[in-house]
Write a structure and sequence with these properties.
The chain has four helices and no strands. By secondary structure, the protein is mostly helical. It has one domain. Helix 1 packs across helix 2 and helix 2 crosses helix 3. The radius of gyration is 13 Å and the shape is globular. The termini are far apart.
């Protein structure tokens, strides 16, 4: 049995100041055309790991939180990478 989608990608141990160009391309494709589930999960796991999910438009934070709750993405490795005002993320941080 294959590993869950979110476990197939390299996780970032901390925030990255630079945006990976492949992730920027994925983000642009997500907004323009949409992505399949695997690429969407890969993109959002990156956005979660870097904290970018919480600083982009609200859709990204809500989608990231929903993917975490559903188990398709994992919380950021760095516990400080959260959105303090997002009630879903505050409850995830506690649990």
């Amino acid at each position: 049995m294959a590993a869950p989608i979110h476990r197939r990608f390299r996780r970032l141990p901390h925030r990255s100041c630079a945006v990976r160009s492949d992730m920027l391309d994925l983000l642009m494709q997500y907004e323009q055309e949409g992505l399949d589930e695997e690429r969407t999960v890969e993109l959002f796991q990156y956005l979660i790991d870097t904290g970018m999910a919480w600083s982009l438009q609200g859709h990204y934070g809500r989608t990231a939180a929903a993917l975490i709750v559903s188990g398709r993405c994992e919380r950021a490795i760095d516990p400080n990478v959260v959105a303090p005002g997002n009630p879903v993320m505050v409850s995830l941080r506690r649990g």
